[in-house]
Amino acid sequence: MASSLIVIAFDSVDEAEKCHAALVQGKKEGVLQINDAAVVAKDADGKVHVRNQVSHGTWAATGVGGLLGLLLGTVFFPIGGLVMGLAGGALVGRMMDTGVDGKFVKEVEQEIQPGTSALFVLVGNADPTAELAILRQFKGKVLQTNLSTEAEESLRKALGDDTPVN
């Protein structure tokens, strides 16, 4: 399943979180799928706060690890086997690198100014109409995307970003 990466910068510390919450609501309503997300905010003192949503790969690996831990642990120590399986599965899921690249998040962290924020989101099987309707509520600047030129232009218009598409 192909995902579309969208990175949007906002002029306030909490705007990326509000946008993320609106996209999560769209996910709950079934109009779009969020595969992974990270919110990066830099407070007025320049301190960076990052909140990541766990990706589907991590959840799947955690579930498989938990099941294996439970099966293997029933002979030795059931609860310990389950806990170790869950932890191991989560680690394997993160190592599968199915979500937003941590190095790229760090690069944007350094670029955003104090008092601002950014949202990284990997959207799969998105309904562009629904996605744009959600994003129109916010004013932001597109920092990075792998969308087509037309889709990126529509995204920029929805966010009030007048930066030309490269």
Which features does this protein show?
five-stranded antiparallel sheet; alpha+beta; hypothetical protein tt1634; 2 domains; 166 residues
Q: What's the gyration radius in Å?
A: 18 Å
- Proportion of residues in helical segments: 40-55%
Strand order of the largest sheet: 3-2-4-1-5
| Mean pLDDT figure | 74
Main beta sheet strand tally, sense and closure: 5 strands, antiparallel
Number of helices: 6
- Tell me which CATH architecture of the largest domain applies here: 3-Layer(aba) Sandwich
CATH class of the largest domain: Alpha Beta
- The CATH topology of the largest domain is hypothetical protein tt1634
Count of folded domains: 2
Report, as a whole number of angstroms, the end-to-end distance: 26 Å
Structure classification: alpha+beta
Strand element count: 5
- Please state roughly what percent of the residues sit in beta strands, choosing from under 5%, 5-15%, 15-25%, 25-35%, 35-45% or over 45%: 15-25%
Query: What would the principal axes of the Cα set say about the shape?
Result: globular
Order of helices and strands: EHEEHHHEHEH
Q: Which regions are unreliable across 5 or more consecutive residues at pLDDT < 50?
A: 54-98
Multimeric status of the protein? single chain
